[in-house]
Amino acid sequence: MTPPRRPVLGALGVVCAPIEGEDCVILVKRKNPPNARTWGFPGGHVELGETAAEAAARELLEETGVVAEPGEQLMTLDVIPRAPDGTVGGQYFLVATLCHYVSGTPVPDDDALEARWVPVARIETLGLELLDQVAELARLAQARARAPRKLPSAPIT
Questions:
Q1: Cis omega before residue 148 (within 30°)?
Q2: Which residues of the chain are modeled with pLDDT < 70?
Q3: Residue ranges of the domains in the chain?
């Protein structure tokens, strides 16, 4: 008997920044399954002892060479790929974190075939094969990136 497989915890690094007058997000074209050759946000497994936010920034750097500071959690996604007969082929719980751009130009590395800035306003019209919820998450990141950043409050003494 095969032991039950467990869901995998993953993190997505979502960067939204103004590039040449347009709000853009960094997307990567995945090299490896599950989702090879589709476009999505840089991301991967959360390592033991690492927060989802730390993993998001690390994965962003590993896949694109872009340095960013992790910020607020944008959303969580349950990804459960199924075979045509309905059997579960895996399960991923992804935490999408808004990351604030610091430096670098997106260059594919690690498990990415391509990496680039993509305009949020045109994300669905560029002919990219997008993973589910990428456009929705890009628009959410755009809205949150435009909002004033919350600074941590100082302790009361």
A1: no
A2: 1-4, 149-157
A3: 12-146
